[in-house]
Amino acid sequence: MSLVKKTSITEGFLLFEQMSEHEQVVFCNDQETGLKAIIAIHDTTLGPALGGCRMQPYDSVEEALEDVLRLSKGMTYKCAAADVDFGGGKAVIIGDPQKDKSPELFRAFGQFVASLGGRFYTGTDMGTNMEDFIHAMKETKCIVGVPEAYGGGGDSSVPTAMGVLYGIQATNKMLFGKEDLGSAAYAVQGLGKVGYKVAEGLLEAGARIFVTDINEQSIKAIQERAHTTPGAVTVVGSDEIYSQEADVFVPCAFGGVVNDATMKQFKVKAIAGSANNQLLTEDHGRQLVEKGILYAPDYMINSGGLIQVADELYGANKERVLAKTKHIYNALLEVYQQAELDHITTVEAANKMCEQRMAARSRRNSFFSSSVKPKWDIRD
Ligand code: NAD
């Protein structure tokens, strides 16, 4: 009896069609530890693929495959926009993070990463934490985002928040002709690891902020932080944050915040925050243009953490990371100007910029192909 279930030629073609934009997809199976993982390498034009590893109890392999293909493609654009020497990749482990984890499982995963010979670097994402990757690190050098004690850069929310503040400066420059943070009003949604630091930065610059969080402690902390400047902080309810009379909405809690319901409420001139996947659909990006609301593409403005992780390969250095994070200001301004010039959305302009960067590198790579090899195994 054959071990391989025969797939019809059409089904086989569908699979290749689904991964047609991707360079490589690796299915990892380890019976001893129960590891079932998929690694997707989308594009390595700019360097080895980089992307976190999710652990989730997916309902099916198809669902896991769809997720890893979509997320790895997103990483290609995120890396190109952040101007780091990495391409896009991602990994998913099919399993329940509460029940199915073990040190051996992550060591097995590390071995699969090692087998890719430096083509794929990974670290934590939803459902995985640094502890898991300390086990994986025993098997491969291709792990990033590790604790400071292991040579990592530490808390990534610090550069992420810095990047958001630089992004808001670029937004203000585009809106008001000056980058000054202090003369505008902001509606900050979420005062977690990133949002709190952004709110602090805005207050330090002398700005007025409306804030909301479901966590009372965070609200209390920001109020205490601003006790010397009465009126600087106004606390509003979770649903009221979208309709505040502020200049910039700063989403730092969760995705999908630009949707049909919120679109009707926005009175702001711009949206610039750290949350991932802020637009519920691409069409919401076009609706923002129609409403005259400037949108900072999330994958650009929140790339400070990625810049830190990519920089780990040169040895952790906080000053260098913050200096690189400053680049978000110029990149975003360029995207805003290009979008205005071409009458396209800022997301379309950002995607175009990334594709141009990859095309330029691709031309250089082919020109020098006989003498220059990609820098796989940077850590050697
Ligand atoms: P976090 O969990 O520390 O903070 C999220 C905050 O949002 C919490 O304080 C939470 O109480 C609050 N919140 C949740 N539901 C809310 C609601 N309905 N109304 C108001 N507040 C609510 O997360 P974080 O690390 O600060 O990340 C914030 C966002 O930025 C996320 O979307 C994350 O994916 C994205 N992001 C974070 C980083 C990073 O380096 N941490 C990097 C890139 C993107």
UniProtKB/TrEMBL annotation:
Keyword Oxidoreductase attached: yes
Entries under PROSITE patterns matching the protein: GLFV_DEHYDROGENASE (PS00074)
Domain Glutamate/phenylalanine/leucine/valine/L-tryptophan dehydrogenase C-terminal: 157-364
The protein's Enzyme Commission number: 1.4.1.-
Highest rank taxon of the organism: Bacteria
Gene Ontology molecular-function annotations: oxidoreductase activity
UniProt keywords, alphabetically: NAD, Oxidoreductase
Family the entry assigns: Belongs to the Glu/Leu/Phe/Val dehydrogenases family.
Identification of the protein by name: Glu/Leu/Phe/Val dehydrogenase
Organism in which the protein naturally occurs: Bacillus lumedeiriae
